[in-house]
Structures are given as structure tokens and as C-alpha cells.
Amino acid sequence: MTTTDKIVNTVLGPVSAGELGVVAVHESLLSVLPGAQYAYDIEMDRAVIFCAIADKLQAFKAAGGGTVVDAGGMYAGRDVPLLEALSRATGIHIVASAGQMEESMLGGYFLTPQTNPPTPWPAEKFAALYAAEVTEGMVVPRVERRGRAGLIATAITVDGMTPTDESQLRGCARAAKQTGVALTFRAGSDPVAELAVALDEGLAADRIAVANAGDRAGDVAGKGGYVVFTDVAAAVAFAQAGGADKTLVATGGAALAFGYNEGEMPETSYDALVSAVPAELAPRLLIANPAALLAAKEI
Known about the structure:
The chain is α/β, with parallel strands linked by helices and 299 residues long. It has helices at residues 46-62, 80-90, 108-111, 123-135, 163-179, 191-200, 217-222, 232-243, 271-276, 282-294; strands at 7-10, 13-16, 22-32, 65-70, 93-98, 138-140, 144-146, 151-155, 182-186, 208-211, 226-229, 247-249, 254-258.
């Protein structure tokens, strides 16, 4: 079976990797700082949100786009019914993710000491939680499961990997290995050491994409992992220097964001990404590499 024949889970069901087309591979369609939805001074009108994101997806489609990967995980604004409606209305494939972000973004349930003395939530519990989102469907809190996650996403604390970050990264890697979907994570202070944690769980390097690798991008690619660039010029330079088969490109922002300080989560559009990548590199960076990453591995 070729890569293009393999299956990718979208919010509307499985499609072949060859149907994805041009992919914005590491995005946030709706990013909500946990708790912001309850703030008295933040208005989150679902109709307004839908229209604002739909406009950006339609512009992406008009520019030649085919798929947006929402890599924000479970609890930072992921709204599965909204994503389904957006995909139906715009014709853009949407791949949603299981997983959660760094320790500071976790809810109290995941930080409550489970042992005496206190230890982080164990990797096996994270693994079971995230694997179920791929095999059984994504959680709509307190309501149901619907759709299946198409990848697993997490992040490492910028100042350095905490014990909870490591436990979660290990759980994410285990879940990815168990289910066949890919793992993507935003690196912290040491991308290579963090990649090594995922590799230590037996997940193949070509099933991992690392964002925010900075000047360690070459080392990540040298280990076999994909590198996600949010600077198109840097992505092009890396690809032209011999890293084209490990280069992925994303915007680095959110279609719509709530609750962040200025500059923390910039709002972005996806259509400019299509024209920003040179024509000779676009088939590799925007189509073939994302398809290879997202195509679920047979278990």
C-alpha cells in the first residue's frame, strides 16, 4: 500500500492520504486559553466564530488548499461539532488532534497528585486517554464521543521539560505507537533530548514532527524526525540545503484566538501559505511530506 492509499482520520471520517491536497500541517483553528471561555469580558458568539473561521478556510481553498491540521489538542479550544460544521461548509478536510499542551496549560485534574509522595500523572494514563480518542472517538466533554483524532499533539515547557511534560510526552508517544497515527510536539529548550524521549518509547522517528526546533532543526532531521517551520524563508533554506524530505510548513498562529496576551497566539490566515512556498518545493513541503506524516501506520 502506498502512502497516498493509507488512511487519515478527519473530523468527517477517514479519507485516503492522497485526498488531502495542500496541507497547513500544524495549526490552531480556534485557540482558547483554558478558562477564557468563562471570562466576563470575553464574548464568544458561536455564529461569529464559525463565520470568521469559515472565511479563512474558504480563502485557503480558493488559493489551492485542501486540509488544515488542528494541532491544539483536546482542551485549548477544540470544538469537534464546530470543526465538523466548518469542514462540511467549506469543503476543507480538517484533521483534529488528541493530546494536550505543556504543564502550565493542563487542568487541575491532570495535575492533582495521584500518589504519596506526589508524582506526575503517569504516562500510561495519558496514553490510554489519547489512544481512545483515536480508536473510539474524540471527547465532547460530558456529552459524547464523535469522530476520531487524526494525530496526537503536545508541547514542552519553553524553559525546560518538567516531569509532567515528560510523562505526557511518553504517553503521547505510546498512544501514537499503539494507534498508528503521528505525534507532533512543540519543542521546549532541548528539541533533540525531547525527541529522544519519544523515540525511547519505541515510536519511529518518521512518525514524529517537531515544531520550534530552532537551530537544532538539522539534528532533529538527522534523527529521522520531521521539522515544522513557521518561517517560510527558513523552511525553504532548510529544504534547499538537503532537508526537503523532512521539512513541514505551518503559519504558527490561530485562525481565531481568545484569552491570550498580545503576541502570544497571533491570529493568522492560511491562504498566504500556499503562495509563499516556491512552486518547485510546494509539492514536497505542502503535499507529500504532510501526507506521509498523517497517513496512519498499520498496526
